[in-house]
Structure formats: C-alpha cells, structure tokens
Amino acid sequence: MTRRQKNLLFWILQFGGWSLYAFVYFFLFRKPGERENLTTQFLFFFTYVVGFLTTLSLRYIFRVFRRRIRKVSLLILAIVSILIISCSVWYTVDIWISMYFWDPLKAEIFREKFSWMLLVRMTIANFLPLLAWSTLYFGITYWMEWQQEKKRTEDALHLAQKAQFEMLRYQLNPHFLFNSLNSARALIDEDPKAAREMITELSEFLRYSLIDKDLSFRPLKEELHVLQHYLSIEKKRFENQLLIDYRIDPAAEDKPVLSFLIHPLIENAIKYGMKTSETPLRLSISASMENITLVIRIGNSGRWIEQEEHDQESGNGTGTGLVNVQKRLENAYPGRHYFRIEKDPGHVCIIIGIHESHEGT
C-alpha cells in the first residue's frame, strides 16, 4: 500500500469513525428536547469536533513515539501519559469554549462549582474513546506494516528464485560458452598452457553457481574472486582490446553483498562497451568504504545505450538485468542503499551504495 493510499484510508476512517460515533450517541442518548435546540446541537457536535482534532494531533505524536521509542514498555507508558493529557485538554477546550454559548447564569454557576475532581472525572470519561481510537490506530498501522513486510518477504523470495535463474542464464549463456570454448579450442595448438588455464577458469566460474548457488550473501572478496575467473576468460578472448583496472579497498573486502550482484553489470559493461568504445575497452572495478557505506563502482569507456536502441524482441537490452539488480537491492537493503548511473561523454559508470545497518534503526 502506497503512502497516498494509507493517508486516504486514514481520512476515511477518521471522518467516518467520528461521524458515526457522534450521530449514534446523539440519537440514542440525547433527549428529544435537546435535539431540537440548535445551540445544544451545535455544542454537542462541537465536542466531537474537538475530539476529532485531538486525535489528529495524536497521530503525529504517535509517529514520533514509534520512531524514537523502541522499548515496548516505555512506548505503552508514553502512550498512556499522552492520552491522559489529551483527555484533559479535550475537556478543557470543549467546556471553556462552550461556556460562551451558555446562559450567563449557568456559566457563572459552573465556574463557581468547577473543581479539579470534576476535571479528573471528565478526563476519565474522555479516556475510553481516545483509548479505542489509539488501539485502532496502532492495530491498523502494525497490521499494514506486517502485510507490507510479508509482501516484501514474498517478493524477496520470488526475486531470489528469479535471480538464481538469472544467474544460470548469465553463467550458462550459450554465446558466452560458445565463445569461450571456441577460444579454448583455438588456443590448444597455439598455446596449450593458455588453453588449459582458460578451461580451468571456465570450470571454476561455472562451479560457483552449480555448487554454491544456495548462498544469498557472500563477502565481497568472494564475489570479486569468481568475477576474476569470468574476466580472465574475457581477457583471453579479447586480449589487448580489454584493459581491466581493479581498485579494491581492503576494508570493503569482508563486507557481505548479494550473491551474483555485480556480474550482470560487468557483462553489460563489456558487451556494450565493446560496441561503443574505442579500443581498447577500459573496464574499471572499484569498491571502497565511505563512512558506513560500501560503494561499488563499475565503469567502462564508451557511451550509454538507451533502452529504445535495443532490440527488445531478441532480448539484447540491458533493461532486464539492471531492473533485476535494482529490485534485489530494494528487497535486501530497504531504505539503506542507492543505485545510480553516471553517463559522461565517453564513459559510463554504475554506482551501488549499501549502508551498514545498526540495531534499532
């Protein structure tokens, strides 16, 4: 449910709930003579208008409480305290404004008889509707959050499964295998040692998915290690047409990242860089810690190819891979990541930032 839908639901329940409460109380508990008096009617409904406005204030106060108070017992104590204060404010505002519409003699008698005990009794009387409102507010809020978290979990599972298939699709890409095996075959007579190394790199790269595919997160250094197998194969294929620059901060190497997060970006960089860049294609891979944020940059020479330039029917576009990466980031790191694409003349760079989580945030 979007924020706009949540706000719409709140206002429907707010107006509908208070209106129903006021009209039911008016027709069931007010005497017929009081219903005919316009001033009495106005003052009666004014009481519920004040209650309506009071609960609007509570909505924003409760938002602050939920963000800042993590301990349940303290949260309950804070809620009860603010409800007691709100009940007193509700009655005080209601009664002192209403007195201006009373008969002067009646207002004077009330002022003389007013006591703190009366305030306490009316506070208790107003406590029940505010308690009911607060219970509904928190109940509906937590229910919606639970539904949202449930959906996020289901989406994460779906995307994890999809990512697994995407992983196999990328790693078992027929073109990639065809080119790699052709290159290895060509090297057998020319350079048997290089051919053996290329086959070893290919087997290690494939083993990453076929044996260890169930792991969702890995240390960054493991992801980079398997990428080196892939890039070693590509380097043997393209030889001097591909230059690779690694800049990895040791502090970033042990940070966990989503399995197979970077490979689609590397594949795109090589595939489309080779089409748009002057040779040699310059590929850069960097990872660093910026305060509490792991920042990964994948850059290549060449230019960005817009979606409309791709042949969608043949599936040659970058859109699907990039969208999948972004969705996996959103589900794995909700509210603590960013994904940016920098398109400079002659250079493209994709930047992923992952903020470290802290307990209680």
Write the layout of secondary structure elements.
Layout: H1 3-29, H2 32-36, H3 38-68, H4 72-98, H5 104-113, H6 116-171, H7 174-190, H8 192-210, E1 217-219, H9 220-238, E2 242-248, E3 256-258, H10 263-276, E4 281-290, E5 293-301, H11 319-332, E6 337-344, E7 347-355
Helix pairs in contact: 1-3, 3-4, 3-6, 4-6, 6-8, 6-11, 7-8, 8-9
Number of helices: 11
The first-to-last residue Cα distance is 22 Å
User: Shape from CA axes?
Assistant: rod-shaped
What Rg, in angstroms, do the CA atoms define?
Answer: 33 Å
Beta fraction:
5-15%
CATH class of the largest domain: Alpha Beta
Descriptive tags:
361 residues; alpha+beta; Heat Shock Protein 90; five-stranded mixed sheet; two-stranded antiparallel ribbon; 11 helices
Model description:
- This protein has eleven helices and seven strands.
- It has 361 residues and is of the alpha+beta class.
- The chain folds into two domains: 149 residues, no CATH class; 184 residues, Heat Shock Protein 90, CATH 3.30.565.
- The chain is rod-shaped and about 115 Å long.
- The chain starts with a helix and ends in a 6-residue tail after the last strand.
- 19% of the residues are buried.
- About 2% of the residues have low confidence.
